[in-house]
């Protein structure tokens, strides 16, 4: 898969970006190839990228298909290659999974003819502005011969099904296997056969199986970029779907239509984030340590046991002293509207004395 730009370099309005898929060498004739491209171009679905063109020549094995490229590019860039912007949250990942499954369902069962992938991976999933997903790089069933030898250094060889690798057999259930690996990548944030991880953890399918089957351990392999913000019931369901997709016997794998039905149910289990994402290690007053394995799960540092000393008895026995009851003398009311200066001073003196007594009485309780 390649990113390409077409148009006039001097005018940005006349330029557009596209995704170019380089096809495996084939003995297919040029005219037959062109007819097949025209057939593929007739496929129309909301979750399929448009086929814009092709590259092919007589007496040349180099052939390419050109598809539309969406705003965010491919899913593998968002999961592994992008350093700017926030990580994909749970709801976005489930939206991408559902859109991709709907695209595969159309190719397998609903289109005018059956089409599929030889190599289906996150590189084949294009993400638009609203994080809806479309598929690119799809082809006809007859495009990849069953006896084709698949290169071991292929970019997407990690997602190719067992029967395709061993016997060259390509069926819709082969794409179901690949979709199961994509679900694992959405759950764990890891790429299958990634050399950055220890040897025993590189095969994502084998490494994740014990965790997928254990409800108590599933959260240990969830992508740390999610920061624990996902509905556990939905994660459990996605893990179950992935396990069914990765059955060794193709007949035991579900169809993409069945997967779509289950993913639609998961959409109702959306996780609402009430607070902005933040790194737990950055929270003030908390010491965090990062584990070197298990996806770098962040765990709190152990706290020392501490119990506060009991309060002293002297403090517990202290109680405010209650002052003796004092009579509250009210100043006599004057019958006349005019008062002499001496009488006025006597009433003012009585008021201040009465206020002092009231404060002492109240403060004592």
From TrEMBL:
Its main location: membrane. Residues 1-265 form the Protein kinase domain. Keywords: Cell membrane, Membrane. Residues 331-341 have a biased composition (Low complexity). It is found in: Cell membrane. GO terms for molecular function: ATP binding; protein kinase activity. It comes from the Eukaryota. Residues 321-330 have a biased composition (Pro residues). It holds the Pfam family PK_Tyr_Ser-Thr. Residues 284-365 are annotated as: Disordered. Gene3D superfamilies: Phosphorylase Kinase, domain 1, Transferase(Phosphotransferase) domain 1. One of its GO terms (cellular component) is plasma membrane. InterPro entries: Kinase-like_dom_sf, Plant_Ser_Thr_Prot_Kinase, Prot_kinase_dom, Ser-Thr/Tyr_kinase_cat_dom. This is Protein kinase domain-containing protein. It comes from Gossypium raimondii (Peruvian cotton).
